[in-house]
Structures are given as C-alpha cells and as structure tokens.
Amino acid sequence: MSILGLFSRNKLDLVGNSDGTMYRYDLGRTGFAKTEPLRKLQGQKWEYECKSNIISSPVVSGGTLFLLSKDGCFHAIDVENGKLKWKFTAKIEFSAGESSPAITDDIVYFMSEDYLYALDANKGRVKWKFRTPNGGKACPIVYDKMVFFGCLGRFYAVGMTKGKEIWSAEISENLVDAPAIDINNQLIWLTAGRNIFAFNLRTGIEQWRYDTRDFMTFSPSVYDGLVFVGAHDRTDLKILEIAQGNVREFSLGAGLWSPVTLAYSQIYANVYNVLEVWQLSRPSFEVNRMWYYRLSQGSFNTSPTVVNDIVYIGSDRYLYAIDATSRSELWKHDVGESVVSPPLVNQRIVYFATYSGRIIALY
After folding, report:
1. Which end of the chain has less Cβ packing within 10 Å, N or C?
2. Model-level pTM?
3. Dihedral sign, Cα of residue 231, residue 232, residue 237, residue 243
4. Structural domain spans, the chain
C-alpha cells in the first residue's frame, strides 16, 4: 500500500481548515494549503514594518493578517493595502521562540510570556486571558471548542469561550513550537525536550511517550496514523505508526532545517540548501527520493508550503516558487534579507516575514 492513499488530494482536503487561519494550515500541521496558488509573480503588493523582530508565522482570516512581534505587540493588518487595522500591546515582551496565533469564529488566540490571550479579531479587545504560571510561547491550536497550548513543564486544554481550564498534563521540558492534532485517534501530539508525547484530547491522559534520545527542535506533522518528527541539523526523520506502536527512522542524507511538509504522496524536507522530495511506501516503509532542487548559493530558511503543484519556500535572500511537476523554478523574489516564516499562500497572494521585521505580500 502506497502512502499516496494517505496523502491523496481528496483526503488532504479534509485534514483541517487549510485556509491560513492556523500555523501550517491545518490541525496536522502538514504545510499543505487548499487555496489558489500564485503561479505567475506580478510584483510586491505591499510591505508592512513591525519595527521589531517577528516571532510568528502570519495567519489570515476575514481580510486581516495577524502576527506577533518580539516587542510585545500583536498586529492586525489589512490584506488589501497593508495598513494597520489595530494593534494590541501586551505588558511583557514575547519570548524569542515561535508563537503563531490561531483564529476561530472571529476570536484570535495567541501566547505571550505569561498569558494565553483571546482577542476579538475585529476590534482587538480582550475577551479573556489565561495565566500560564511557568511562562509560555508555543502556538495554540483550536479544536472542538477547546484551545490547546503549552508552557515550561506543562500542557493545557482550556475552553475557548471563557478560558477555563479543562485539563492539564505534566511534560518533561519546554514544549517545542506547535502541537498537532490527530482527529481519527483523538490525540494531540507534541515534542518536549527529548520526548514525543500524545495526550487524549478529552481527558488529557497520556497515551504515548517516546524518548528519542536527542533533543527534538521541531514540532510534529501528523496525518492518518503517522507522526513525522525531526530535529535541527539532524539527518534522521522519525516516523511513528500510532496503531502499531512502531517508530521508524530514515536518513535524509543531510540535516533538517525545518519541520517537514506532507503533500500528496511526498514528504518535502528543507535540508539546508536543498529542497528534498521523498516518497514513502507502506507497509515496507521504503523511502525513495523523487526529486530535489538545489540552491547554487545560500540556504533555505523555512518549511516548504505546498499549493497544488507549486512549492513555496524562503531562503536567506529570496522567496522561491518551484514547480513540482517540471521540478524547476517558476520564479523568485529578491527580499534582500532572510525569510523567517513559512510562506502563507491565500487566494493567489503570498505573505511572509523577514528577519528585520517586515511583512511582505506578493501577487
């Protein structure tokens, strides 16, 4: 059985929203987007200056782009003209780690160093906030009227309406980046320190704990019974079979620089200056390299985003669009500095953040 059945076009449509309202598009954090791609680049639509480093990947909903900056500000930007709609300032600076927001039912959720906030997405007013005693930074994820998030040593589920705790669970170390949800098995997956955890969505009871014997620096990607986890500059990608309880590993040949992306029958991986595309066959778990795209100079900085047959990925100077069918470059945009967020594609517009604190929209 090929993994093509797992990542088929129709089944991936059902993974999550896939519309840009959450980090990496869906509950499984696959990096696959169901939207209209930008195939032919016209130019830059607008640019917004945050005046501080950006510590989140932008998300979009209802004509507004949302993101966090390190100076404690949460920005809501008009996607048509790049003008600021409103800005919320927290009382404390955000940590340097990734902390992208999530949006559901006109409420936007994000984390500061001390609180999980729920804001009215239209006005920026606080609906509620939940104190995280040990500090927090990971991306919240919203599912079935619950908001899931983590902090140093603890993971929480709170009600999305009033922010009341439903359950919490102890984890060994600081949560890495972003949890992912496996709807079929009703599990939420996360990485913390050397460990990969899974908790029951309803009860918070621990269902899985796997010691990787190495520090896991990337969040998991989950789809249909498989969990994919890697670490920065490590050559091995770990694949967990949930039902069988097996853990597989395969070597990418070079160190990962971001979480992998899952699209159709392929695994897309950023391995420094090469975009690698692999196919995994089951039940043999044979991994075959399908194709790759190598930079002549510089390095890729972000996770790939896949829309239809186009791969978008940022480097230390350019934003690239690569045709997965012809395996060649469609276009590249000279940013002049590092791209620091996975490209967000929504209705033929590509949004991304840069090292100095700019948000750029291409059309």
Report:
1. N
2. 0.93
3. positive
4. 3-54+142-362
